[in-house]
Amino acid sequence: TDKPELLQLLFVKKLAELEQCAISGGASEQLVRKIRLIYVTLAARLGLYDLADELSTEAFRIAQPEDLVSTTQQMSEVMRMDYQDIADYAEAIRGRIEDALRKEIDGVRVEARWKRPFSCWEKTKRRQSEYPYVRNLRDFVTVTVVFDAPEGKSWQDIYGQIVEIIAGKFNVTEMGKDDFRRRQNVHLCIWI
Q1: 11-38: pLDDT as tens digits
Q2: How does residue 122 score in pLDDT terms, banded at 50, 70 and 90?
Q3: Average pLDDT of the chain to the nearest whole number
Q4: Those residues with Cβ within 8 angstroms of residue 130's Cβ, 6 or more apart along the chain or in another chain
């Protein structure tokens, strides 16, 4: 559709259906599967990541409440903070990195995402030999730095400058880079 508000209403309706199932105790496996396979995927492809995460978390809460509690507890233990505080932590780190970079580099944008319980649980099941437990995951908070290389500078120069600034000021466990057309992205995994 060419009307994004209609899509938003559709997602809100599906979220409401999930919540109603939770309240009535009549969670339908078919509804949960449909939400996960269709609506979570569609929301993510449309760039509505927070909505996709909310839908998958709600479906997880309804379909597997014990796994949700266990995963959330493990995340809190690893991050040494309540699960509810991880979003605030991610935003604080994003802001600090953006402030540090903007002092030195023009035109950077910094985004942050944090793993939701379903994503953690799913990764430990899908890649069990590599991540047998939630505590083995390394990417609870991911910060993405997006920039355009200015005329006369290569993206490698800007990337090197970003790495130097961030490595000197933050506890970064991993850095990777992706070249998407002319827009450059630097992915940083932050670990406490």
Answers
A1: 667 767 766 666 566 557 777 888 888 8
A2: very high
A3: 79
A4: 136
Residue 131: burial class (beta carbons within 10 Å; 0-12, 13-18, 19+): middle
What single string gives the DSSP state of each residue in the chain? ---HHHHHHHHHHHHHHHHHHHHHT---HHHHHHIIIIIIHHHHHTT-HHHHHHHHHHHHHHH-HHHHHHHHHHHHHHHTS-HHHHHHHHHHHHHHHHHHHHTT-TT-EEEEEE--HHHHHHHHHHTTTT-SSGGG---SEEEEEEE-PPTT--HHHHHHHHHHHHHHHS-EEEEEEEEETTEEEEEEEE--
Average pLDDT over residues 62-77: 92
Residue linked to tokens 């995460």: 53
Cβ contacts of residue 75 below 8 Å, gap of 6+? 83, 86, 115, 117, 120, 134, 140
